[in-house]
Amino acid sequence: MTVTMAIPPNVTKANAFKILHAYPGGASLFQRVSGAIGASFFSLVYVVAPIWVIAAIVAPFVLPFNWYSMLLYVPVVVSALIPPVPSGYMLKSWPFKYMPAYFDFTEISETSDAEIKELLATKRVIFTAQPHGVFTFGGACAGVEWGKRFWDPADCPTTVANVVMKFPLVKHAVGIFGTCDASPRTLKKTLAKRSVVLYPGGISELFLCDEKEERLFVKKRKGFIKVALQSGVDVIPVYLFGNTQVLKVAKSPVLRAMSRAMGVTITWFWGVWGTVVPFEKKIVSAMGRPLGLPHILEPTPEDVEKYHALYVSEVQRIFDAYKGTNPDFAKKDLIFEE
Questions:
Q1: 315 vs 22: CA distance, rounded Å
Q2: What is the pLDDT of residue 4?
Q3: Over the stretch 179-202, which tens digit does the pLDDT of each residue have?
Q4: How far, in Å, CA of 312 to CA of 337, rounded?
Q5: Domain ranges of the chain
Q6: Of the candidate ranges 17-31, 203-217, 224-238, the one whose mean pLDDT is the lowest
Q7: 14: confidence class by pLDDT, cuts 50, 70, 90
Q8: Under a CB-based contact definition with an 8 Å cutoff, are residues 23 and 282 in contact?
Q9: Directed axis angle between helix 137-149 and helix 29-62, to 10°?
Q10: DSSP annotation string for 247-270
Q11: pLDDT score for 12
Q12: Can you tell me the distance from the alpha carbon of 139 to that of 197, in angstroms, rounded to the nearest whole number?
């Protein structure tokens, strides 16, 4: 359902936009409970998978030739050997299709579905989503809604750290969204064939945001702009209001440093009553217009700096223009971490 409203003061008339509410009439109790189950699956995997893998490694030494150890060991080995499979069918099935209901998901877009389809089929694009959060429930909700209209995860995978691509159990859970390695070399190869979703802030951003302020780690993340220029693809910034509110995170400089060094999140997080069930917070996805990047085979540092500054200013514009659509963000300011 498309909802018409006045153009916010910071949005030019040239940037026509639409608002799509996943459940404009309000979600039923069944839909919300189903959505909570679907969302909790991903946060549960993030907790269970590391414990399971450690137990699978230890079990054969503690209980050799025991069927208990085999129950732990075999799933890990199978998951390690079999590549993840992107599945639009899974995203459109119960309970995952109801995740937008649980988060009262609203999508704001200055780029039409028709334009996105054309970009996916021709020029290709990097959808840069921020902030990251423990798990990108905002991105998951957007994927569910896009999947209903035009998108298949195999056509537009999400970039993840190499360790996530290889970690048993986790790689298959996130793999239903379609995944590819976030390294520049692999990213270029992927962009030669298809568009991607990229989270520039990555793990570092996970430790920055809280209920009082919204911080992005992007001022030093310029590599994706260089890759975009070299590959001749465009960039569309997406802001996920509420992505950092659905789970609380234990934070410290030591945990942040360890997580960055290992390429995987090392911390503890919790939701409702200290469980893995995310808080029922509203999430709004606000997508801007393509930046209109040129194709520069050998971009200079000045070229990268110029278009990175354009990206940062556009993220700021999107935040200021649409933060009022999520009550939790109406009085927040956006801070770009140095």
A1: 23
A2: 37
A3: 998 888 899 999 999 999 999 988
A4: 12
A5: 2-336
A6: 203-217
A7: very low
A8: no
A9: 120
A10: SEE---HHHHHHHHHHTS--S-EE
A11: 46
A12: 9
* pTM (predicted TM-score): 0.90
Residue entry with tokens 């992927």: 190
Cα distances (angstroms) measured from residue 242 to each of 30, 144, 208:
22, 17, 14
Write down how long the chain is: 338
The dihedrals phi and psi of 244, each to the nearest 5 degrees, come to: -95, 0
Q: Using alpha carbons, list the distances in angstroms from residue 226 to 147, 157, 276, 326.
A: 29, 19, 37, 32
Q: Residue 7: left if φ>0, alpha if ψ -120 to 50, beta else—which one?
A: beta
Contact criterion met (CB below 8 Å) for 317 and 139: no
| Token pair listed for 333 | 């300011």
Q: What is the phi/psi pair of residue 200, to 5°?
A: -60, -35
DSSP-derived 3-state class of residue 241: strand
Q: Which amino acid is it at 182? A: A
Q: Give the full edge-to-edge strand order of the sheet including 106-109.
A: 2-3, 18-21, 106-109, 284-287, 234-241, 125-130, 196-198, 158-160, 179-181
